[in-house]
Specification:
With about 725 residues, this protein is α+β, with helices and mostly antiparallel strands. Helix content is about 45%, strand content about 20%. It contains 19 helices and 25 strands. The protein has a six-stranded antiparallel β-sheet, with helices on both faces. It has a five-stranded antiparallel β-sheet with strand order 8-7-11-10-9, sandwiched between helices. Strands 13-15-16-18-17 form a five-stranded mixed β-sheet. Helix 1 packs parallel to helix 4 and helix 9 packs across helix 14. The two termini are about 45 Å apart.
């Protein structure tokens, strides 16, 4: 449920604003429930409020019942909510259905108990009014620390909003009573005039009126929020209750000299209120910035007002609610959001630069080792050394890719690219990849693909491949005897992949943190290998694809482990379930152009000499005519002079970069194919090269087969392939 995306502060900010503007208690409570469900991805939520004596909690609102408020008592000493309220601390229960204190939200949940429940007290500073609960009935949907933090922030803001809504309701009741008393007074006066009651009756009526006025004054004074009466004509303050005097930090003797204009920070606010009063006779829920006249301290209020007659003059009766704390929280959230966005931008820029600086030299290391390995005159020792270089480079590249993948996930820049692909071929390639490694360790590797699995499915094939690659790599690494199995089946639109091994298993304490970034299990630490990112990335990828990844330890420690991937996938309607297509042997390497083809001209635009030399040597050996430009300006001049069929354009170059050079060439209308050379890993960088006009991109570091595949795709050239041309893999002792 966690997510390191920077959008959550923005969502909280919107929720706080909506709650601030809502004064109907019933509407507010259901709004809080809906916000809690959305923020924590819960299935249901409920609010319990405490009575005045704080002797009992009562359910007043639950998910699914928006037409009315409830009144269901819940005892303090026999409920999870009661524990949260009395302790003033959140209570997070992973298996609420088995907890004797569990009190279900609503009648429909008596039969279907929650699996997980999170109760957070509704409190702000020293004021505690109730409890906010969220529930999940699904297995494996326990609430995490991030959910607790979000719900606590929401609960604090909700407490302020509930108190404000209660105050507004009190004010409305007071206004209604005042109106009723005025009506009764007018009716009484009319009766006195009409019936000419005797003096005794009139005195009794006057006494009743004085009593009524005194009662109203008591209500007015007892209101826990500021109430003021000001003259409409000049803003003179005729009356203010004690709450208003305290809020504006003035004493009663200052009232005769005080005017409404003295408290407005922005005089345009007063002009807006006067317009509303003139046209509508009042206003509701206006958020205003005011100041204390004596100290100048600025505060925020939510004000409502109505025109009344007071002491024979047209006046404005105004009720104000202090929302300073809420506005300060909003401002803190806004600043936190801006800081998080700035940090993400800086992190993205740093990662983009580091990606280029790390992957560019790796391109030369891996590329030249591939080219040197093609030399048939190498000695066995030289082949071994080249294999060591290549293996170490690939290991470093995998580490860099893991760190960058996790960074993309944390900054919200990981995207999903759905496409149709042959899942049988993908599984066969993975089995071929790990079969040799498993054989060298003396363990078996078994792939079982159920007949129910369609040949073509639709999802992100690269992310599915990375998940299974990480799981199989760990299984083979930790298994010293026995075997590793990959079982795949398909049912009800879900692809099920299970990776099981006979390794040491997973200790119970490690199961809780096994998917945390940079966290390794006890056995992983003993192996002194890996970064602790593979499983974290795998689970994040699974969640991005709408699925789940779960880990299990089989029996006692030392009896193996099981990782289960459940993934929703699309299946093309026209696809028939046929036997798998044989996978192309990934150990084949491009050798040369097939005879009888035209001579193709390839222009390389690359400022790094080692990278341009690598591409030049590779393409020349394959049979192409090649020229090299050291910057974008040279590339444009060579393009005009030589008219190449295809340009390999590096995006970062001095004088004129690849972006601008591509735009200028494409602006001429010529159909020259341009392939972007980039060490960037972010999808928006690749989208930018497409917007510049590039026809495709080649990521550094690349394999000779990657270059051949692009040339075949865009030029239609045909190559011959051979096996055994890569560096020999050294045997491990």
């Amino acid at each position: 449920m966690n997510d390191a995306n920077a959008s959550l502060p923005a969502q909280l900010l919107d929720v706080c604003r909506e709650m601030t503007s809502t004064v109907s208690l019933g509407q507010l409570l259901h709004q809080i429930i809906q916000s809690a469900v959305q923020l924590t991805h819960a299935e249901s939520a409920g609010i319990l409020l405490c009575d005045e004596g704080q002797s009992e909690l009562r359910f007043v609102a639950v998910t699914g019942q928006t037409d009315r408020l409830l009144d269901i008592p819940v005892p303090f000493d026999r409920s999870i909510a009661g524990v949260a309220f009395t302790s003033a601390q959140p209570v997070n229960v992973s298996d609420a259905g088995a907890d004797p204190r569990y009190y279900p939200i609503g009648e429909d949940q008596i039969q279907f108990k929650a699996r997980s429940l999170l109760a957070v007290p509704l409190q702000y500073k020293q004021r505690r009014v109730g409890v906010l609960e969220v529930e999940n009935k699904r297995d494996g949907a326990a609430f995490e620390a991030g959910d607790v933090e979000l719900l606590e922030v929401l609960a604090a803001q909700a407490t302020i909003a509930i108190e404000n809504a209660r105050l507004v309701e009190d004010l409305r009741h007071a206004q209604d009573e005042l109106k009723q008393q005025l009506v009764e007074r007018e009716e009484l006066s009319a009766q006195v005039l009409a019936t000419r009651v005797d003096l005794t009756a009139l005195q009794q009526a006057q006494a009743q009126l004085r009593e009524s006025e005194e009662n109203f004054r008591k209500i007015f004074e007892a209101a826990p929020f500021p109430l003021t009466v000001t003259v409409l004509e000049d803003g003179t303050v005729l009356y203010a209750n004690q709450s208003a005097l305290d809020f504006y930090e003035v004493t009663p003797d200052l009232l005769p000299r005080l005017h409404a204009i003295d408290v407005y920070v922005d005089l345009q606010d007063r002009a807006k209120l006067q317009t509303l009063v003139q046209h509508a006779g009042g206003f509701n829920n206006m958020e205003l910035r005011v100041r204390a006249p004596t100290t100048g301290q600025e505060k925020w209020i939510l004000a409502s007002g109505r025109v009344i007659q007071y002491r024979g003059r047209a006046c404005l009766l105004s009720a104000q609610v202090d929302v300073t704390a809420s506005r300060q929280s909003e401002e803190e959230l806004r600043r936190a959001k801006e800081a998080a966005e700035a940090a993400n931008r800086a992190k993205s820029l740093f990662l983009a630069n580091m990606s280029h600086e790390l992957r560019t030299p790796l391109n030369a290391i891996l590329g030249f080792s591939e080219l040197m390995a093609r030399d048939t005159g190498l000695t066995t020792e030289q082949q071994y050394n080249l294999a060591t270089i290549n293996r170490s480079g690939e290991h470093l590249l995998n580490l860099i890719n893991d760190v960058l993948d996790m960074a993309k996930i944390e900054t919200g820049r990981a995207v999903v690219n759905f496409r149709q692909f042959d899942v049988h071929r993908l599984l066969d390639e993975l089995a071929d990849l790990f079969r040799l490694r498993a054989t060298e360790k003396g363990v078996t590797l078994l792939l079982t693909c159920d007949p129910s699995v369609p040949q073509l499915i639709e999802t992100d094939d690269k992310k599915l491949r990375q998940i299974l690659l990480n799981l199989l790599s760990n299984a083979v690494k930790f298994t010293e005897q026995g075997g590793v199995g990959l079982r795949v089946k398909f049912a009800a639109g879900l692809l099920w992949c299970e990776v099981q091994d006979t390794g040491p298993g997973i200790l119970p304490q490690d199961l809780e943190t096994i998917f945390e970034p940079f966290v390794q299990t006890t056995y992983g630490l003993k192996s002194k290998e890996g970064t602790g990112l593979g499983l974290a990335i795998s689970r994040q990828f699974a969640q991005l694809l709408g699925g789940t990844l779960t880990a299990f330890s089989l029996g006692e420690p030392g009896q193996g482990s099981l990782f289960m991937l459940q993934l929703p996938v699309g299946v093309p309607l026209a696809v028939q379930r046929t036997s798998p297509t044989p996978a192309i042997d990934s150990r084949l390497s491009v050798a040369a152009l097939e005879p009888g083809q035209p001579t193709y001209r390839i222009l390389i635009a690359e400022d790094r000499l080692e990278n341009s030399d690598l591409l030049r040597l590779l393409l020349a050996k394959l049979g192409f005519e090649v020229r090299v430009a050291a910057n974008g300006l040279e590339a444009i001049n060579l393009w005009r002079e030589w008219r190449p069929h295809l340009i390999l354009m590096d995006m970062r170059m001095p004088v004129l970069d690849g972006h601008e050079a591509t735009r200028r060439i494409k602006a001429t209308g010529q159909a020259t194919i341009i392939i972007a050379l980039t060490a960037g890993v972010f999808d928006d960088e690749r989208e930018q090269v497409r917007l510049d006009g590039c026809d495709d991109f080649l990521s550094k570091p690349f394999h000779p087969n990657d270059v051949a595949e692009l040339l075949t795709k865009h030029l239609g050239v045909r190559f011959t392939y051979r096996s055994g041309t890569g560096p020999l893999v050294p045997r491990t002792s």
